[in-house]
Amino acid sequence: MQSALPRLLEQARLNHSLRIAVEDSRTGSTLTYEELGNSADGVRDVLRNCGVVAGDRVGICAPKSVSVVAAIHGILSAGAAYVPADYSAPAARTAGIFNDCSVKALIVDATSCSALAAALDDQNLEDVAHLDDDLIVLGRRSGREASTVSPGRETTVDDIAYILYTSGSTGKPKGVVHTHASAVGFIDWCSATFAPESSDRFSSHAPFHFDLSILDLFLPVTCGATVVLIGDDAGKQPLALAQIIEESRLTVW
Length: 253
Description:
This protein is of the alpha/beta class. The protein has helices at about 5-15, 35-50, 65-75, 90-100, 115-120, 180-195, 215-220, 240-245, and strands at about 20-25, 30, 55-60, 80-85, 105-110, 125-130, 135-140, 160-165, 175-180, 200-205, 225-230. Helix 1 runs antiparallel to helix 2 (about 35-50), helix 2 (about 35-50) crosses helix 3 and helix 4 packs across helix 5 (about 115-120).
C-alpha cells in the first residue's frame, strides 16, 4: 500500500539518521536526517499551535535554505499542504496566490514579510514564531502550547500534499492540486528509473514552486542521499553551475 510523503522522512530518519540530508551550496549549512526530522517536528508543532489541521494550506515565500526544506517537511507532517510561491515576484501577485487557496498560515522571509502580509485578504495573520533569523511564521495565536494541541488524524494518500501555481502568462495563475498519491507515484517512478543510492548527491536546481523540485526534494529521502541547494542566481549562470557541480560533487542533476 502506498504511503504518504511524511513516511519517507520517518524512514530516512530511522535508517540514515547521521547522513547529510540537505546542504546549501552557498552557505555550507547542512542538516542530517535526524536534524531535518527534528526541525520539521518543530515546524509541525508551531503550525498545529496556530490551528493548522489536515487539509489546510500553508504558503511558503522565501529563498531556498535548509530551513525552508525543513519547513516543507514540517507542513506535510502537520497534515497540511504546502503552497510555494516565487520569492522574486511582486507581493501583490504572491498574495493573490495565497488568497486564492485560502492559506491558514504562511512561512515567509523576513524581508518580504510586511509587504506580503499587508496584501493578504486575511489580516488576522500575525508573527507567531521565527524558525531562524530569516524565516517567520505568520498565523493565528491559539494561546495553547504545542504539546496540548491534538495531533489530528494520520495523513492519507488521498490528502493534498502541495499546490503548484502556473505562471499566469495567459492570465491569472491557476493552482494545480497534487495529492500524496500523485507525489509518491512520481517518486516511485523516479526511484525505479534512476535507482538512487545513499552515496548520491542530488542538485536542487528547480525553484520550489516548479514541479521538478518534487524529484529534488523527495527522491533523495527515499535512500538517505543528500540534496544540495542551488541558489536562484547561480541557477542562471552556466559557468557558475559548472563550478558548483564540481565543488559539490553532484552525481544527479
